[in-house]
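Student:
Attend to each token:
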Amino acid sequence: MKKFRFILLFAVVFVAQMAFSQAVIKFDTTKIDLGTFTESQVKTAVFEFTNTGDKPLVVHQAFSSCGCTVADFTKEPVQPNAKGRVVVTYNAKGTFLGSFKKKVVVRTNAQNGFVPIYIEGTSKPDAASSK
């Protein structure tokens, strides 16, 4: 009977451990200021993150609401305590110039599955086009 209780207790602890084990994504920063630049310059921001959970982290998608902002990300699973990246590229050509703030949503298998990250800055006309 003691052996049965021990096995049952072990099974319950194992199932509970599996149920609560999960990946967790934690960004070093969620906002990067690209500064002031001309519309012909393409700017890039690199967001680093760490998997602070205890299961592999998989980034499924990183998307924005604007074609001027494109995101690329670490494709392979990020192991616990390892780092990954989301690289956001902003192209101001053909957009409204001036101050902007763009949101990129990172979708993962983590406990905090959807995480917004932001780029901001100011784009101005090229010197040749402002004359």
